[in-house]
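Whether sequence alone determines local backbone shape is best considered at the level of individual chains. For completeness, the protein is quoted in full, as a sequence line and a line of structure tokens:
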Amino acid sequence: MATTSDIRNGLCIRYNNDIYKIIEFLHVKPGKGPAFVRTKLKSVTNGKVVDNTFPSGRKLDDVRVETHKFQYLYNDGEFYHFMNEQDYSQIRLLEAALDTPELMKEGEVVTIIINSEDSMPLSVEMPASVILEITHTEPGVKGNTATNATKPATVETGATINVPLFINEGDKIKIDTAKKAYQERIKE
């Protein structure tokens, strides 16, 4: 059993007959009244995100998990297929278990969280950032670096990301997977 003081991003808990992963939390100590923890929980079974507030000191039923490195192989429309880097066994997951599947390219190494009790995969953690190539965007104009204006660009995985005006087709960019946002252009 864990308490609200053990809450951290990525902690898996059993709540309302489902397993949730904490994706955001905030400890709040108001001037008047007891302290509490405001959380954003994501269901690992259906991907639904709910907001919840726990009173400070409340006991939580945490789920014991293991993390393993897996390589993304391919997507067959319904399932995403992964291979364990240690024993080369393969698993397949529904899209709901993935946070940002549109940013995964074949060969990407991800961390899969697995329930220790029944060996069921719970969720997939992407790397903090990925490097992808721009496949389609309007041509950039030299000198468009002074403003914060952006334009849509399609990357090699098919996702659309807003990028600065100076980015061209063929450029490689670094994308923050948590925010699905442009970070920087990669020069080779």
